[in-house]
Amino acid sequence: MRWENLTDENEHGRAADAALFGADAVTVRTFDTPEFRGITFHEVRARSVLNRVPGASRMPFEWTVNPYRGCSHACVYCFARKTHSYLDLDTGIGFDTQIVVKVNAPEVLRRQLGSRRWQGDHVAMGTNVDCYQRAEGRYRLTPGIISALTDHANPFSILTKGTLILRDLDLLVRASEVTDVGISVSVGFLDTELWRTVEPGTPAPERRLDVVRALGEHGIGCGVLMAPVIPFLSDQPDRLRETVRAVAAAGATSVTPLVLHLRPGAREWFMAWLGRHHPYLVRRYERLYAEGAYAPRWYQRRITRQVHELAQEYGIGPTRAGQARRIRPAGPERAAAGAEPVQLSLM
Ligand code: SF4
């Protein structure tokens, strides 16, 4: 693996400024418990954890923190797969099972937030890989990160598929009392069979909606990033409707659709999966994604319009009575809300 002079990777596949790890900073661990069987953890000590999103980006946030690289949630379509290739790690099964852990992320972040040069900008988490993936249950890095941000009254957002976020509910409530906190949960569809094969390491969609509900009950508004909408598998009108209806029932403050995109690294892995599970769709996908990583704009607009109409029909939005305090979509969700394609990990 290439650890020497390794630079972190941001949401756009470009290297961030600072070298993060020394060559001697890697400790490799495995844990013989059922939830971590087959997973290897590469513990590193980062020099910097605040990653700057390039200025030309369409993202509505400039800074991200990612305590992990690789993700045991193992979503087949995850765009962040490509980032594993920079470590000479495999972008397929290796992305799911070789997890880099920045074990000192909370203390480094606290130091960086305390720097006189830091301007207190919004910090987005979960935009590259999920900070509430399985590893977080063991390493518990995110509470320290939230506490550091809270102590500096620094606004932040989290995008996740992990129900583990509820472990940190008290911390999130405390943070929301001193700064802007945006939480988004990603639920692209409800189909159980599709979930089991395409997002095999994630909590079930219904459990994620329970997170939305629980956050709302504690006064923390939560949006849903309806991502990804998977062409020909979850885009049928009745499926869009059942998802938006469930999102509304969970009390989400907003719903933002994002159509599947297939960048290099994810594309090969996804198309191999498609060939195994839905071979009759391979030719249609080749046509739909013939121009590159994104589905055609007409298709994206159609899905966006349908979901927005359903959201209106089911009354999702910040004006609903009794909903939580924080109603602005979180950073990643605001990004996805734009008409332009965005490069989230489809969390
Ligand atoms: S899409 Fe998100 S949850 Fe899924 S593997 Fe990628 S980072 Fe993890």
Automatic annotation (TrEMBL):
Biased composition (Low complexity): 329-341
Region feature Disordered, mapped onto this chain: 321-347
A GO MF label: metal ion binding
Radical SAM core domain boundaries: 57-305
Keyword RNA-binding: no
Chain ranges passing through the membrane: none
Keywords: Iron, Iron-sulfur, Lyase, Metal-binding
InterPro entries: MJ0683-like, rSAM, rSAM_sf
Presence of keyword Metal-binding: yes
NCBIfam families, A to Z: rSAM_Rv2578c (NF038135)
PANTHER family: SLR0285 PROTEIN
Protein's UniProt name: DNA repair photolyase
